[in-house]
Design goal:
By secondary structure, the protein is an alpha+beta fold. It has 4 helices and 7 strands. Helices cover about 20% and strands about 10% of the residues. The N and C termini lie far apart (about 75 Å).
Protein backbone atom coordinates (compact mmCIF):
# COMPACT_ATOMS: atom_id res chain seq x y z
CA UNK A 1 0.00 0.00 0.00
CA UNK A 2 2.84 2.38 0.83
CA UNK A 3 4.53 1.60 -2.50
CA UNK A 4 1.27 2.15 -4.37
CA UNK A 5 0.68 5.45 -2.55
CA UNK A 6 4.21 6.53 -3.32
CA UNK A 7 3.72 5.80 -7.04
CA UNK A 8 0.35 7.56 -6.96
CA UNK A 9 2.07 10.62 -5.55
CA UNK A 10 4.72 10.41 -8.26
CA UNK A 11 2.05 10.14 -10.96
CA UNK A 12 0.15 13.07 -9.44
CA UNK A 13 3.35 15.13 -9.33
CA UNK A 14 4.12 14.30 -12.94
CA UNK A 15 0.61 15.29 -13.97
CA UNK A 16 0.91 18.59 -12.12
CA UNK A 17 4.27 19.23 -13.77
CA UNK A 18 2.74 18.56 -17.18
CA UNK A 19 -0.12 20.97 -16.49
CA UNK A 20 2.29 23.62 -15.23
CA UNK A 21 4.56 23.13 -18.25
CA UNK A 22 1.60 23.50 -20.59
CA UNK A 23 0.49 26.62 -18.76
CA UNK A 24 3.97 28.08 -18.86
CA UNK A 25 4.23 27.27 -22.55
CA UNK A 26 0.93 29.06 -23.16
CA UNK A 27 2.14 32.02 -21.15
CA UNK A 28 5.40 32.09 -23.10
CA UNK A 29 3.44 32.02 -26.35
CA UNK A 30 1.14 34.77 -25.17
CA UNK A 31 4.12 36.80 -24.04
CA UNK A 32 5.86 36.33 -27.39
CA UNK A 33 2.71 37.38 -29.22
CA UNK A 34 2.29 40.48 -27.07
CA UNK A 35 5.16 42.20 -28.90
CA UNK A 36 3.12 43.13 -31.98
CA UNK A 37 -0.42 41.86 -31.29
CA UNK A 38 -2.37 44.82 -29.96
CA UNK A 39 0.43 47.27 -30.76
CA UNK A 40 0.21 50.11 -33.28
CA UNK A 41 1.66 47.72 -35.88
CA UNK A 42 -1.32 45.39 -35.41
CA UNK A 43 -3.43 46.56 -38.35
CA UNK A 44 -5.84 43.61 -38.40
CA UNK A 45 -9.45 44.75 -38.70
CA UNK A 46 -11.31 41.53 -39.45
CA UNK A 47 -12.60 43.07 -42.69
CA UNK A 48 -11.22 41.01 -45.59
CA UNK A 49 -7.98 40.29 -43.70
CA UNK A 50 -9.16 37.33 -41.58
CA UNK A 51 -7.86 39.15 -38.48
CA UNK A 52 -4.32 38.54 -39.72
CA UNK A 53 -1.57 40.72 -38.27
CA UNK A 54 1.59 39.75 -40.17
CA UNK A 55 0.10 40.05 -43.66
CA UNK A 56 0.47 43.82 -43.79
CA UNK A 57 4.24 43.41 -43.85
CA UNK A 58 5.11 39.79 -44.69
CA UNK A 59 3.93 37.05 -47.02
CA UNK A 60 4.96 33.35 -47.02
CA UNK A 61 5.38 33.35 -50.83
CA UNK A 62 6.26 35.83 -53.55
CA UNK A 63 7.68 38.65 -51.41
CA UNK A 64 9.27 41.82 -52.75
CA UNK A 65 12.89 40.81 -53.33
CA UNK A 66 13.95 44.45 -53.79
CA UNK A 67 13.47 45.13 -50.06
CA UNK A 68 15.91 43.73 -47.51
CA UNK A 69 13.26 42.47 -45.11
CA UNK A 70 12.02 38.88 -44.88
CA UNK A 71 9.37 38.08 -47.52
CA UNK A 72 8.24 41.70 -47.71
CA UNK A 73 4.59 42.01 -48.74
CA UNK A 74 4.43 45.60 -49.94
CA UNK A 75 5.06 46.61 -53.56
CA UNK A 76 7.25 49.35 -54.91
CA UNK A 77 10.88 50.29 -54.63
CA UNK A 78 12.84 53.18 -53.23
CA UNK A 79 11.31 56.64 -53.49
CA UNK A 80 13.31 59.78 -54.22
CA UNK A 81 14.05 60.53 -50.57
CA UNK A 82 15.98 63.56 -49.40
CA UNK A 83 18.16 62.40 -46.51
CA UNK A 84 19.80 64.19 -43.61
CA UNK A 85 23.32 65.42 -44.20
CA UNK A 86 25.76 67.55 -42.24
CA UNK A 87 29.32 68.80 -42.48
CA UNK A 88 30.02 67.07 -39.16
CA UNK A 89 29.20 63.57 -40.46
CA UNK A 90 32.40 61.68 -41.23
CA UNK A 91 30.86 58.68 -42.96
CA UNK A 92 29.27 58.28 -46.35
CA UNK A 93 25.52 58.69 -46.72
CA UNK A 94 23.91 56.31 -49.21
CA UNK A 95 20.46 56.55 -50.79
CA UNK A 96 17.72 55.03 -48.64
CA UNK A 97 17.92 51.26 -48.83
CA UNK A 98 18.37 48.18 -46.67
CA UNK A 99 15.73 47.67 -43.97
CA UNK A 100 14.85 51.38 -43.99
CA UNK A 101 13.07 50.84 -47.31
CA UNK A 102 10.71 48.46 -45.57
CA UNK A 103 9.92 50.90 -42.76
CA UNK A 104 9.36 53.79 -45.15
CA UNK A 105 7.06 51.76 -47.39
CA UNK A 106 4.43 52.55 -44.75
CA UNK A 107 5.89 55.62 -43.08
CA UNK A 108 6.62 57.84 -46.09
CA UNK A 109 2.90 58.32 -46.77
CA UNK A 110 3.13 57.47 -50.47
CA UNK A 111 0.83 54.45 -50.37
CA UNK A 112 -1.90 53.10 -48.12
CA UNK A 113 -0.82 50.73 -45.38
CA UNK A 114 -3.23 48.07 -46.67
CA UNK A 115 -1.59 48.01 -50.09
CA UNK A 116 0.07 44.59 -50.24
CA UNK A 117 1.30 42.12 -52.82
CA UNK A 118 -0.61 39.12 -51.47
CA UNK A 119 -3.85 39.40 -49.54
CA UNK A 120 -4.46 36.60 -47.01
CA UNK A 121 -5.54 33.34 -48.59
CA UNK A 122 -5.41 34.85 -52.07
CA UNK A 123 -2.54 33.09 -53.75
CA UNK A 124 -0.19 35.48 -55.53
CA UNK A 125 -0.61 38.97 -56.86
CA UNK A 126 -3.98 39.84 -55.36
CA UNK A 127 -3.04 43.46 -54.74
CA UNK A 128 -4.91 45.25 -51.94
CA UNK A 129 -6.59 43.86 -48.87
CA UNK A 130 -9.03 46.79 -48.87
CA UNK A 131 -9.66 46.38 -45.17
CA UNK A 132 -10.11 50.04 -44.47
CA UNK A 133 -6.76 50.61 -42.80
CA UNK A 134 -5.92 53.32 -45.31
CA UNK A 135 -3.00 55.70 -45.15
CA UNK A 136 -1.32 57.42 -42.24
CA UNK A 137 -2.69 60.82 -41.40
CA UNK A 138 -0.36 63.54 -42.73
CA UNK A 139 -0.47 65.24 -39.32
CA UNK A 140 1.02 62.43 -37.24
CA UNK A 141 4.72 62.10 -36.49
CA UNK A 142 4.76 58.53 -37.85
CA UNK A 143 4.15 59.95 -41.34
CA UNK A 144 7.69 61.02 -42.19
CA UNK A 145 7.14 61.92 -45.82
CA UNK A 146 9.94 61.63 -48.38
CA UNK A 147 11.95 64.62 -47.08
CA UNK A 148 13.98 63.11 -44.22
CA UNK A 149 16.29 66.05 -43.64
CA UNK A 150 14.69 66.77 -40.27
CA UNK A 151 15.07 63.17 -39.05
CA UNK A 152 17.88 61.11 -37.61
CA UNK A 153 20.32 60.07 -40.37
CA UNK A 154 19.55 56.78 -42.08
CA UNK A 155 21.81 55.11 -44.60
CA UNK A 156 24.88 56.63 -42.93
CA UNK A 157 28.09 54.78 -42.11
CA UNK A 158 28.42 54.23 -38.39
CA UNK A 159 31.27 56.09 -36.76
CA UNK A 160 32.69 57.39 -40.04
CA UNK A 161 33.68 53.87 -41.02
CA UNK A 162 36.31 54.32 -43.75
CA UNK A 163 37.16 51.84 -46.46
CA UNK A 164 39.79 49.46 -45.12
CA UNK A 165 40.49 51.56 -42.00
CA UNK A 166 37.60 50.67 -39.73
CA UNK A 167 35.88 53.10 -37.39
CA UNK A 168 37.57 56.50 -37.38
CA UNK A 169 35.31 58.81 -35.34
CA UNK A 170 36.18 58.76 -31.60
CA UNK A 171 32.81 60.35 -30.76
CA UNK A 172 31.12 56.98 -31.37
CA UNK A 173 31.12 53.87 -29.20
CA UNK A 174 33.12 51.11 -30.86
CA UNK A 175 30.87 48.65 -32.64
CA UNK A 176 31.01 44.90 -32.13
CA UNK A 177 31.24 42.52 -35.09
CA UNK A 178 30.38 38.95 -35.89
CA UNK A 179 29.53 36.71 -38.83
CA UNK A 180 25.99 36.12 -39.96
CA UNK A 181 24.65 32.66 -40.57
CA UNK A 182 25.39 30.64 -43.69
CA UNK A 183 21.99 31.73 -44.98
CA UNK A 184 23.40 35.26 -45.14
CA UNK A 185 26.46 34.04 -47.08
CA UNK A 186 28.81 34.69 -44.20
CA UNK A 187 28.61 38.50 -44.37
CA UNK A 188 29.89 40.49 -41.43
CA UNK A 189 27.32 41.97 -39.10
CA UNK A 190 27.76 44.85 -36.68
CA UNK A 191 26.00 46.10 -33.58
CA UNK A 192 26.60 48.29 -30.53
CA UNK A 193 26.29 46.50 -27.20
CA UNK A 194 23.99 48.38 -24.82
CA UNK A 195 24.64 46.29 -21.69
CA UNK A 196 26.57 47.90 -18.86
CA UNK A 197 29.04 45.05 -19.32
CA UNK A 198 29.05 44.19 -23.07
CA UNK A 199 28.13 40.54 -23.61
CA UNK A 200 29.39 40.30 -27.23
CA UNK A 201 25.98 38.99 -28.35
CA UNK A 202 23.84 40.73 -30.96
CA UNK A 203 20.63 41.11 -28.95
CA UNK A 204 17.36 42.82 -29.86
CA UNK A 205 18.03 45.44 -27.21
CA UNK A 206 21.38 46.37 -28.79
CA UNK A 207 21.74 49.09 -31.41
CA UNK A 208 21.63 46.99 -34.58
CA UNK A 209 23.79 48.13 -37.50
CA UNK A 210 23.06 46.93 -41.01
CA UNK A 211 25.54 45.72 -43.60
CA UNK A 212 25.78 47.69 -46.84
CA UNK A 213 28.52 47.75 -49.43
CA UNK A 214 30.72 50.76 -50.23
CA UNK A 215 33.11 50.26 -53.15
CA UNK A 216 32.68 46.51 -52.76
CA UNK A 217 33.52 46.56 -49.03
CA UNK A 218 30.90 45.65 -46.40
CA UNK A 219 30.35 48.50 -43.93
CA UNK A 220 28.08 49.05 -40.87
CA UNK A 221 25.22 51.48 -41.47
CA UNK A 222 22.64 53.18 -39.28
CA UNK A 223 19.11 52.46 -40.49
CA UNK A 224 15.60 52.95 -39.07
CA UNK A 225 15.72 49.58 -37.31
CA UNK A 226 18.98 50.48 -35.55
CA UNK A 227 16.88 52.17 -32.87
CA UNK A 228 13.40 50.75 -33.58
CA UNK A 229 12.30 47.11 -33.41
CA UNK A 230 8.99 46.87 -35.32
CA UNK A 231 7.95 43.76 -33.40
CA UNK A 232 8.37 45.10 -29.85
CA UNK A 233 5.64 47.69 -29.44
CA UNK A 234 3.43 48.03 -26.38
CA UNK A 235 1.52 50.61 -24.41
CA UNK A 236 4.71 51.54 -22.62
CA UNK A 237 6.77 51.50 -25.82
CA UNK A 238 4.55 52.98 -28.54
CA UNK A 239 7.53 54.09 -30.63
CA UNK A 240 8.97 50.54 -30.81
CA UNK A 241 12.29 51.67 -29.35
CA UNK A 242 14.86 48.93 -28.75
CA UNK A 243 15.31 50.16 -25.17
CA UNK A 244 14.15 53.05 -23.06
CA UNK A 245 15.61 56.48 -23.77
CA UNK A 246 15.42 57.49 -20.11
CA UNK A 247 18.51 59.59 -19.42
CA UNK A 248 19.11 59.65 -23.22
CA UNK A 249 20.07 55.99 -22.95
CA UNK A 250 19.55 55.28 -26.65
CA UNK A 251 21.52 58.32 -27.77
CA UNK A 252 24.41 57.59 -25.42
CA UNK A 253 24.54 53.96 -26.49
CA UNK A 254 26.21 55.14 -29.70
CA UNK A 255 27.34 58.71 -29.09
CA UNK A 256 30.24 59.50 -26.73
CA UNK A 257 29.11 62.76 -25.12
Amino acid sequence: MQVESRWSAVRLGAALCAVMAAALGWCATASAQSGIVGSKHDLATGTNDNYEVCVYCHTPHGGNADVEAPLWNKPGGVQAYRTYDSATIDGKILPVGSVSTACLSCHDGTQAMDTVINAPGSGLGDGRIRSGVGALSPNVIANLGVDLRNDHPVGVQYGGFADGRGQIDPDFVNSATGLQSALMLGRTRWWVDTERVPNANRDKTDMILYTRSVNGVDQPFVECATCHDPHRGSGTNPAFMRLTNKGSNICLSCHVK
